[in-house]
Amino acid sequence: MSAQMTPVRTGGEPRSPRLSIHGLSVRFGGLSALDDVSLEVREGEVVGLIGPNGAGKTTLFNAVCGLVRPSAGTITVDGVPLPPDPTRLSARGVARTLQGLGLFRGLTVRENVLAGRLGAHDPGTDAQRQLDALDLAGHADRPVGDLPYPEQKKVALARALVAQPSLLLLDEPAGGLGSEDIAALGDLIRRTAATGCAVLLVEHHVDFVMSVCDRVVVLDFGRVIASGTPDEVAGDPAVDEAYLGIEVSR
């Protein structure tokens, strides 16, 4: 499905990397899930991470979040290594949505959003701001499990954004959404990046990625096979081969 959005490309002088991954490798026993992966996401930039199933996309996210231990390589945010502890990510300005939502179904929408701002000086004000921004205020006191799936996706995103992250990791944010919701999501991602937040997203909707991202990184069998602007990646024969299993003449 096609998302009708016009991406705002990063212009002017190159910005400093917010997230830097260099030479990242992850092994599970004899299986190499990631092999010498390097990428950067700059301040105010949206980078898409795509690839066939099993390419290593979620493993990379889990490595950034300290859920799996790399066998080699470095991961830094603003030049400082990330702690290998998921509970300390928020303090470093990192927030993530989950492919499976990860909401507390017995809690209200407001309570779920507040969970992303625990320990803040005035979490209620921050939560209300996100509820308003995502048109969730009318559902604030409903159990989140009573909402339709697209609305639950909004709640998960609001919970991530309420922490005011400088680095936002989105794991398949468009999954299960219709075309109108996908277009609205793309606009929200661009507005978030415009505040200076760096966004790295994993997504199977390739047309959505190409329309919203400044750069795209393609993984296959744990290795980077292409990286560049959406136009550059879309015209790369290695990408067609990875997705379609067809070798294209070079």
UniProtKB/TrEMBL annotation:
Gene3D superfamilies named in the record: P-loop containing nucleotide triphosphate hydrolases
ABC transporter domain residues: 19-246
Keywords: ATP-binding, Nucleotide-binding, Transport
Pfam families: ABC_tran (PF00005), BCA_ABC_TP_C (PF12399)
CDD domains linked: ABC_Mj1267_LivG_branched (cd03219)
UniProt keyword Kinase present: no
GO terms for MF: ATP binding
InterPro entries: AAA+_ATPase (IPR003593), ABC_AA/LPS_Transport (IPR051120), ABC_transporter-like_ATP-bd (IPR003439), BCA_ABC_TP_C (IPR032823), P-loop_NTPase (IPR027417)
Record-given protein name: Branched-chain amino acid transport system ATP-binding protein
